[in-house]
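Sync notes, pocket subgroup
Present: LS, DG
LS reminded everyone that the earlier model was apo-only. Rerun requested with arginine included. Inputs:
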Amino acid sequence: MPEFSRPTILMCPPDHYGIEYEINPWMDKSKGSDRALAHAQWQALHDILVSLGVDVRLMSAVKGLPDLVFTANAGLIWRSTAFVATFRHSARQGETPIDEAWFRGCGFRTVMPPETMDLEGAGDALFCGDTLFGGYLIRSDARALQWVGARIGCRVIPLQLVNDHFYHLDTCFCPLSPREALYYPGAFDRYGLQALEDAVPELIPVEEGEADRFACNAVVVGKDVVLNSGCPQLEATLRSRGYTPHPTDLSEYLKSGGSAKCLTLRLDGENAALWP
Ligand code: ARG
């Protein structure tokens, strides 16, 4: 069983990161990422997290798996269990055995979703309070989210993702605490918006321009929030609610449809989850 004495986050260095295929509307092979800049941006994010007292654990990069850097997709963590991710697109399916071995080596009990279900880890499954919010359709299956909920005895609220640019739930929804969450309304249908309003006491909208800069894809560590730079409105909102924003430029990862949160996986339980 893994033991954590402080906030602990898994990252994977971008040694083999690149735009090698196109599986979401942000990716364009003709607009590749700058290797040195991608490294510098990843390192800056890493160093901010370390300065906030986070224990950052590293998974080794693997050639041919450019998206392994997005550790949010490695699995869904619940106590000492890691529900290992199974990916929609064949380009990412090679990540699953690497993720499974890493979690096992760290002391987690690893559980694989049934073969017929896709579940892209914490990218599509986020706890807020006593509820697991799940994004489905584009990458993960609604029944995979229900399957997890049944195993951990947790209420699941499935949210259909209706906007291809916000293809993972963590691109448009970010729990800050058990009762507060950021969200981008344009990523959900009417039912999803109503479900969010009913379930989250304080729902904080992010405007379109900043949502497009992945404002919702933020890493929350207590009262500190690390996010892509260029989201001044959200930064002001966070400050007014007692949070300290830490903007950092992640432009090379936006080219792949990812940002701060995607590059991290909280191993000891998110601050917004009531179970840790
Ligand atoms: N290029 C990756 C993909 O399309 C980006 C993953 C971003 N991860 C996330 N948790 N949103 O799968």
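DG: The pocket of arginine is lined by residues 23-24, 27, 67, 70, 72-73, 92, 123, 168, 170-171, 256-258, 262 (CB under 6 Å).
LS: The helical segments are 35-51, 90-93, 95-106, 142-152, 190-199, 208-211, 232-240, 251-254.
Action: DG to write up.
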